[in-house]
Automatic annotation (TrEMBL):
<dbReference type="InterPro" id="IPR004821">
    <property type="entry name" value="Cyt_trans-like"/>
</dbReference>
<dbReference type="GO" id="GO:0009435">
    <property type="term" value="P:NAD+ biosynthetic process"/>
</dbReference>
<keyword id="KW-0808">Transferase</keyword>
<keyword id="KW-0548">Nucleotidyltransferase</keyword>
<comment type="similarity">
    <text>Belongs to the NadD family.</text>
</comment>
<protein>
    <recommendedName>
        <fullName>Probable nicotinate-nucleotide adenylyltransferase</fullName>
        <ecNumber>2.7.7.18</ecNumber>
    </recommendedName>
</protein>
<comment type="pathway">
    <text>Cofactor biosynthesis; NAD(+) biosynthesis; deamido-NAD(+) from nicotinate D-ribonucleotide: step 1/1.</text>
</comment>
<keyword id="KW-0662">Pyridine nucleotide biosynthesis</keyword>
<dbReference type="InterPro" id="IPR014729">
    <property type="entry name" value="Rossmann-like_a/b/a_fold"/>
</dbReference>
<feature type="domain" description="Cytidyltransferase-like">
    <location>
        <begin position="17"/>
        <end position="185"/>
    </location>
</feature>
<keyword id="KW-0547">Nucleotide-binding</keyword>
<dbReference type="InterPro" id="IPR005248">
    <property type="entry name" value="NadD/NMNAT"/>
</dbReference>
<dbReference type="GO" id="GO:0004515">
    <property type="term" value="F:nicotinate-nucleotide adenylyltransferase activity"/>
</dbReference>
<dbReference type="GO" id="GO:0005524">
    <property type="term" value="F:ATP binding"/>
</dbReference>
<keyword id="KW-0067">ATP-binding</keyword>
<dbReference type="Pfam" id="PF01467">
    <property type="entry name" value="CTP_transf_like"/>
</dbReference>
<keyword id="KW-0520">NAD</keyword>
Length: 212
């Protein structure tokens, strides 16, 4: 690829935070993180599995140590990816604004980009102190091809102009893969190969996850 097609080098150092339950982590998460890293010139992306996510109503979320290990296995082959157990160590619910503020202390002076799926961003008005959060970092909403951006725009219209300017979107074809579908496939005895890294697939079967 010629240099003319590469993103311009940002003035400040940039880091991405990839948030999610990761139950399980799959290729959609990995492709979204890599595309965001490339498009926005980030030095690395930190995957942060949620401890007790406030917006998840499922009662059968896998144990934190399993989700952390699956994420570690998934990112191990990419030198630009790493993981953090910050949210899992925190007492109580996992709020994004607390995570971002903690990371800003570690990466003082860096620009922080929080990467998540567009479905999560559609719920952004219910997030804790969303206007304050968007003063702390940029948001990258990874969307599936054909995603209705008008729905996202309608939601964001309730935020200030300054806050909306901090939200970016990228299109990621692999986001047609979903953790929910993978769990259902395991439960029904259907294949999950090629939907997620082989090491994660093996971990799921070795630990008998999602079978009930």
């Amino acid at each position: 690829m010629s240099d003319i097609n590469k993103p311009a080098q940002p003035e400040k150092r940039r880091i991405g935070l990839m948030g999610g339950t990761f139950d399980p982590v799959h290729h959609g998460h990995l492709v979204a993180a890599e595309e965001a890293r490339y498009q926005f010139g980030m030095e690395k992306v930190i995957f942060i599995p949620a401890g007790k996510p406030p917006h998840k109503t499922r009662q059968d979320i896998s144990p934190p140590e399993h989700r952390l290990e699956m994420t570690r296995l998934a990112v191990s082959s990419n030198p630009h990816f790493t993981i953090s157990d910050l949210e899992m160590k925190r007492e109580g619910l996992s709020y994004t604004i607390d995570t971002v503020r903690a990371m800003k202390k570690v990466y003082a002076g860096w620009e922080i980009f929080f990467i998540t799926g567009s479905d999560a961003v559609l719920e952004i008005l219910t997030w804790k102190n969303v206007e304050g959060l968007l003063q702390e970092c940029f948001f990258i909403a990874a969307t599936r091809p054909g995603f209705n951006l008008e729905a996202l725009g309608h939601k964001l219209s309730h935020l200030s102009r300054e806050a909306v300017a901090k939200i970016k979107t990228i299109e990621v074809p692999a986001l047609a893969i979903s953790s929910t579908d993978i769990r259902h496939r395991v439960r029904e005895g259907r294949p999950i190969k090629y939907l997620l890294p082989e090491a994660v697939e093996k971990f799921i079967y070795q630990n008998k996850l999602y079978q009930i």
